Amino acid sequence: MTQMNMVQAINDALRIAMRKDERVVVMGEDVGKVGGVFRVTSGLYDEFGDARVVDTPLSEGGIIGAAVGMALYGMIPVPEIQFSDFIWPAYDQIVSEVAKYRYRSGGEYTSKMVIRTPVGGGIRGGHYHSQHPEAQFIHVAGLKVVCPSNPYDAKGMLLASIADPDPVLFFEPKRVYRAAKGDVPEGEYTVPLESAAVVREGRHVTVIAYGAMLYEALDAAQKAAEQGIEAEVVDLRTLWPVDIETIIASVKRTGRLIIVHEAPKTCGFGSELVSLVCEKAFYHLEAPPVRVTGYDTPFPYTLEMEYLPLSHRILPAILDTARAV
Amino acid sequence: MTSAAHESIYTAALSDDDVVRVLGPDGSLDARNDPGLSPEEVVHLYRHMVLTRLVDDRLVTLQRQGRIGFHIGSLGEEAAIIGSAYALRKQDWLFPCYREFGAALLRGMQLERYIDNMFGNANDPVKGRQMPDHYTCKAAQFGSVSSPIGTQITQAVGFAWAAKIQKRDLVALTYFGEGATSSNEFHNGLNFAGVFKAPTVFLCRNNGWAISVPTERQTASRTFAEKGVAYGVPGVRVDGNDLFAVIAVTRDAIRRASAGEGPTLIEAITYRMGGHSTSDDPTRYRDKSLLDPWADRDPLARIKRYLDKQGWFTEAEEQKLRTEIDARLRDVVEAAEKTPAPSLESMFDDVYASLPWHLREQRAEVLAGPRAPSAHH
Predict the structure, then answer these.
(1) Is some CB atom of chain B closer than 8 A to the CB atom of A233?
(2) Which of A10, B17, B31, B111 has a Cα at 20 to 30 A from B3?
(3) What is the arithmetic mean of pLDDT over B75-96?
């Protein structure tokens, strides 16, 4: 075991995957010599060289389009989109091509890749360095979408994603890139995709969160406990396909549900989770499900801490929901 | 821009000195660029061009009869498509647009599977999941057809680039129309290929029209080939209705790519003699008289004149070929039409490598639920 932050853990996973399988190629803007703007790919260029750690021209559509071709050839591309806010020029390739290849070719071709991209606010990045666009990708049939919250999961889930037969969109919560630290085993291990983790048990209310907001949910749960309310906190880890069994089992225990995410409320992933819970556990619900999310505005700069669903907003939601009759 | 102005620009382009042409109007070959095909090769390619045209013709009829939903053909563009596909070496790959079934068949796709795709039946290579002419054939090293414009261009570059990283001698050729030169992917593809010297051949079928929009609304450049200059990619213009010239310039581009000299952009000047697809009515935007000069440049007629001059293909052989193709098509269409639709369950396969819980649920729901009242199948 070694203490690592998320940047180090993801870097470690990439190095392990690249040493193990020469088909793994890292590509993107500034991923090479400088090691990425967040240093996630630091040192890989020196170890694996220019052909496998590629500084590309500045075009997200070109990066993903070329990565599709590499995947069709049989490589395992791990392209980086420098900020998820900049993913949209590649949206056509991701939606129309990456997500559809297996289906539309009758299974003849796959476009297996892991697209890594930092997400989320709270870093004074303003609108174009802060968004959390998971819903737009979950809605697209054919992608797996993950968002680990800690170094152990980040390393194990990245290795699982690289080994997975399907394309994976790997969201990295950049607000906790360095803040989230923990013990990480040396060498290779995987954390299975499609499996959520109950990170705090509680009997009064279920709080679902992921990425950087997990820590806000845990903070709020701690404060609620001081007032006698025991919140159960679920870290989704994989957003799609979501671990529905863990969610439903928790809601059946608590009868109450809060969903926390940074992305705007309307048509956010929380909407889908509420629908799923209503379909599968409606008669276990003792209070209306609540979403604590970003607002339906563009992501603001100066007021970002008011926009984000931080602990101060989650706590009253927990207390109100737990006490609702 | 009037149609007449369009035509004058367009015919001027064809008479430009920088357009490579081998097959003269009198059936002679220009020795400077003659690819040196044997009589057997010319006859083989001519037979294949006739097959392509007759398939096109049959599919348009089937669509008009309501037996298939759609067809997007290559009428008038056969030399550009078949010549370039023929120039490929065995190890090379094709990344198609949606008008190149002739190339797929030439590279080994079975006619039966192609026609199955037209019917979206259980034997369709893509299992009825895409509309007609959106198929795939990995065995023929032929990519997967999708409708969004230009997406295959960067994919071809990535494929060729991967082969280069793994030190394999392999070239990827990608097709697109001149309309796609306005797409993001064209510029991304040329730029990436230029920077990484990815062994790619960009084959632009400049057929004059992107549905109803003429070439001069796609670009203010004099040529499409010159767009390569900005990316450090040499561009070459070729008479796209000249089978010999297309083979010669494509071979040269493949040789360059294979030798590590980088990608080439080929502008094959041809003409879309039909509509964009069976869903299009070109009489709404294109005067029929515009087709006349191109009828004289018909790529099949040009080869036929050459064959006649050489005495390599008799009229009796021509009639026999057409009769044989006709009979074969009748059988293949009949079999495809009788083949049942893909199974209902198969709708949920291949979204992922294995079926996740939500698709299992939805599959069960469909299987248990009522059937659609007027299903296509």
Answers:
(1) no
(2) B17
(3) 98
Mean pLDDT, rounded, of chain A: 98
Q: Identify whether residues B122 and B90 lie together within a single domain.
A: yes
Q: Say which of A62, A75, A164 has its CB closest to residue B192.
A: A62
As a whole number of angstroms, the distance between CA B172 and CA B361 comes to 41
Tell me how far the alpha carbon of residue A28 is from its chain's centroid.
19
DSSP-derived secondary structure letter, B69: S
Nearest-Cα distance to chain B for A105, in Å, is 5
Is 90 exceeded by the pLDDT of residue B1?
A: no
Regarding whether B22 and B7 lie in a shared domain, the answer is yes
Determine the residue type at A164: D
Same domain, residue pair B239 and B365: no
Q: Determine if the peptide bond prior to A241 is cis (ω within 30°).
A: yes
Residue A99: alpha-carbon gap to chain centroid = 17
Q: Which CATH class is domain A2-184?
A: alpha beta
Respond yes or no: is residue B276 known to be catalytic. yes
The pTM (predicted TM-score) of the whole model is: 0.96
A-to-B residue pairs, Cβ atoms closer than 8 angstroms: 146
> In the structure, what pLDDT confidence band is assigned to residue B7 with cuts at 50, 70 and 90?
low
* Residues in chain B within 8 Å Cβ distance of A144: 352
Q: How far is CA A23 from CA A27, A62, B29, B74, in A?
A: 13, 20, 47, 38
Instruction: Output the average pLDDT for chain B.
Output: 94
Residue ranges with strand state E in B60-105: 93-95
Q: Which residues of A touch B172 (CB under 8 A)?
A: 69
Query: DSSP state, B154?
Result: H
Per-residue pLDDT tens over the stretch A267-307: 999 999 999 999 999 999 999 999 999 999 999 999 999 99
CA atoms within 13 A on the CB side of B306: 25
Question: Catalytic pick from B53, B134, B272, B286?
Answer: B272
Alpha carbon A290 to its chain centroid, in Å, reads: 21
Question: Which CB contacts under 8 angstroms, 24+ apart, belong to B61-64?
Answer: B62/B118, B62/B333, B63/B278, B64/B278
ipTM over 0.85: yes
CB distance B136 to B126 below 8 Å:
yes
For residues B179 and B278, state if they share a domain.
yes
CATH assignment at residue B142: 3.40.50.970
Alpha helices in chain A (DSSP H): 6-20, 44-48, 60-73, 91-92, 101-104, 135-138, 151-163, 213-226, 244-254, 269-281, 304-307, 311-323
- Cα dihedral B15, B18, B20, B24 sign: positive
Asked whether residue B353 falls in the same domain as residue B290, the answer is no
- SS3 of chain A: helix, strand, coil, percent, to 5: 40, 20, 40
Distance between CA atoms of B59 and B46, rounded to whole angstroms? 20
Domain shared by B118 and B208, yes or no: yes
Nearest-by-Cβ selection for B126 from A25, A61, A104? A104
The CATH class of A197-323 is alpha beta
Kindly report the three-state secondary structure assignment for every residue of A246-300: HHHHHHHHHCCEEEEEEEECCCCHHHHHHHHHHHHHHHHCCCCCEEEEECCCCCC
Of A70, A72, A96, the CB nearest to B148: A96
In the 8-state DSSP scheme, what is residue A94? I
Domain ranges of chain A: 2-184, 197-323
Task: Tell me the three state secondary structure of residue B261.
Answer: coil
Partner-chain contact B154 A144, CB within 8 Å: no
CA of residue A314 relative to chain centroid, distance:
20
Is A129 catalytic? The answer is yes
Q: Per-residue pLDDT tens for A196-254? A: 999 999 999 999 999 999 999 999 999 999 999 999 999 999 999 999 999 999 999 99
Q: Is A297 on the interface with B (CB under 8 A)?
A: no
Which domain covers residue B133, as residue numbers?
3-342
